[in-house]
């Protein structure tokens, strides 16, 4: 029986070794060529869309997920025909990509970057396509859009607008565990197909903040308006760059498993972000990132949750999606089999939570030379940020924090 036990042990080891091989093979699995192209294109879309939105007056915080926007565009391509469909590909700079590769590539990209287990971040994404009650969704469309874009389909009657909007908000709240209680108060165009994205993203830092290193501080929204926010502090070794010519700091903080990272771009002092936004091109960001160097940095960040909902319909129209959003021109007949729909709304709503949690840090470097004379990164005024993916090089989020939630502080002299 000893030999039997030994035999079993060997078998177990062999199985374990096999499992390890399979696991590492999956971990190192490369992105397909089409998914890699689309990842790259979605990074261009990130900057185009951000720039387009930044022109909007009275818009404060911005929070968009370019890869999720790309995936919603894929859904429009799936439902579109002729030039309505080909315009989508132009917006994605993917005119040469075949339909099947477009859909499979976008699906692969989103599955890869939203894998919470592999990346140790929480990223819940829910997508829903609403159509007017008169519409009949074609079976093929339902099947393929579920498969590639994980979208639910629903008909909605807007005769009672209040209750229609309430039911949309209830769906968003439920699918984000209550993080997005309201994604819209009202809606102008209620007669078309509507895409809704509801997301919740929570960072898990590669090195966590200490729970005791949190206190209330002022965040200056403008010269005359300061709000009180909890601020978390830690000193560590981070990739950092100070652009003295443009008077700004760039800081990169890895998220757990180092498969993605949060990049902050912040002016030295309080100022409207317009100046930085004029510099914000993909080329410039790549140039900044290439200059990052590991330094001791004393980081202070607002410990807040940013909840933003944008209607992207108009912005996508301005980026070239002119037909799908036009009632008279749209051909979305692959959705219903009839030319009876246009894209009347694209609601893109996300909650992003900055918290202290993360992997345990190596405390042995505290008090050593390595952390002496740290650079200061004190985020008490508006900044731009991105969540960059390390593997696909796509941008998971891009945005700006201008006004965090918090009570107004008494004016100080
Ligand atoms: C639209 O549907 C038809 C018929 O189901 C299909 O052959 C065609 O490929 C679809 N077009 C697109 C752009 O998906
Ligand atoms: C997510 O990643 C884990 C660990 O790398 C892997 O086992 C799993 O299959 C992935 N899930 C998907 C849906 O790809
Ligand atoms: C991230 O990893 C930590 C342990 O290091 C674990 O407690 C946590 O649940 C993980 N989070 C996710 C979203 O996987
Ligand atoms: C990106 O991944 C590489 C390889 O795993 C790692 O060495 C590097 O630190 C990562 N970068 C960031 C910013 O997390």
CATH hierarchy: architecture of the largest domain: 2-Layer Sandwich
Q: Give the strand content.
A: 25-35%
| Broad shape | globular
Q: Total helix count?
A: 12
CATH class of the largest domain: Alpha Beta
Rg computed from alpha carbons, rounded to a whole number of angstroms: 23 Å
| Terminal Cα span | 85 Å
Question: What does the average pLDDT come to?
Answer: 93
Subunit arrangement of the protein: single chain
CATH superfamily of the largest domain: Antithrombin, subunit I, domain 2
Description:
With 413 residues, the chain is of the alpha+beta class. The chain has two domains: 33-203 and 306-353, Antithrombin, subunit I, domain 2 (Antithrombin, Chain I, domain 2); 214-303 and 364-403, Alpha-1-antitrypsin, domain 1 (Roll), CATH 2.30.39. The protein is built from twelve helices and 15 strands. It has helices at 2-27, 33-54, 66-79, 82-91, 99-113, 116-119, 139-149, 161-175, 274-279, 282-290, 313-318, 333-336; strands at residues 62-64, 122-132, 151-156, 193-202, 214-222, 225-243, 248-254, 260-267, 293-302, 305-311, 343-353, 375-378, 383-389, 395-401, 407-408. Strands 1, 5, 6, 7, 8, 9, 12, 13, 14 and 15 form a ten-stranded mixed β-sheet that branches. A hairpin with a 4-residue loop joins strand 6 (225-243) and strand 7 (248-254). Helix 2 (33-54) packs across helix 5 (99-113) and helix 3 (66-79) runs antiparallel to helix 5 (99-113). The longest helix is centred in the N-terminal third of the chain and has 26 residues, at 2-27. The radius of gyration is 23 Å and the shape is globular. The termini are far apart. The model has no long low-confidence stretch (mean pLDDT 93). One 2-acetamido-2-deoxy-beta-D-glucopyranose binds at residues 78, 80-81, 85, 99, 140, 334.
């Amino acid at each position: 029986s000893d030999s039997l036990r030994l035999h079993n042990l060997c078998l177990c080891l062999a199985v374990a070794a096999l499992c390890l091989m399979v696991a590492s093979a999956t971990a190192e699995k490369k992105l397909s060529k089409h998914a890699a192209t689309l990842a790259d294109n979605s990074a261009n879309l990130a900057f185009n869309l951000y720039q387009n939105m930044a022109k909007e007056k009275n818009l404060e915080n911005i929070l968009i997920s370019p890869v999720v926007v790309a995936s919603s565009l894929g859904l429009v391509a799936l439902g579109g025909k002729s030039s309505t469909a080909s315009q989508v590909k132009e917006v994605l700079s993917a005119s040469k990509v075949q339909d099947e590769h477009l859909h499979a590539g976008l699906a692969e990209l989103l599955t890869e970057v939203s894998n919470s287990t592999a990346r140790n971040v929480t990223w819940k994404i829910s997508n829903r396509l609403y159509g007017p009650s008169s519409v009949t969704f074609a079976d093929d469309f339902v099947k393929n859009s579920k498969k590639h874009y994980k979208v639910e389909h629903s008909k909605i009657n807007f005769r009672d607008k209040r209750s229609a909007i309430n039911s949309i908000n209830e769906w968003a709240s439920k699918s984000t565990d209550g993080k997005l209680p309201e994604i819209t108060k009202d809606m102008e165009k209620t007669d078309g197909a509507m895409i809704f994205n509801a997301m919740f993203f929570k960072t898990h830092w590669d090195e966590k903040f200490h729970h005791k290193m949190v206190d209330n501080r002022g965040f200056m929204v403008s010269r005359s308006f300061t709000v009180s926010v909890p601020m978390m502090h830690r000193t560590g070794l981070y990739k950092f760059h100070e652009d003295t010519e443009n008077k700004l700091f760039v800081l990169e903080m890895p998220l757990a498993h180092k498969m993605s990272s949060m990049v902050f771009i912040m002016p030295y002092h309080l100022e409207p972000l317009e100046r930085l936004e004029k510099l914000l091109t993909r080329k410039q960001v790549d140039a900044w990132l290439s200059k990052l160097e590991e330094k001791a940095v004393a980081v202070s960040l607002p410990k807040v949750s940013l909840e933003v909902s944008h209607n992207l319909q108009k912005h996508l129209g301005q980026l070239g999606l002119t037909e799908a959003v036009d009632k008279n021109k749209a051909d979305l007949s692959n959705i219903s089999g009839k030319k009876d729909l246009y894209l009347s709304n694209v609601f893109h709503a996300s909650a992003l939570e900055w918290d202290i949690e993360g992997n345990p840090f190596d405390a042995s470097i505290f008090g050593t030379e390595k952390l002496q004379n740290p650079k200061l990164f004190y985020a008490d005024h508006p900044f731009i940020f991105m969540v960059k993916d390390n593997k696909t090089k796509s941008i998971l989020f891009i945005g700006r924090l201008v006004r965090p939630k918090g009570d107004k502080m008494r004016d100080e002299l």
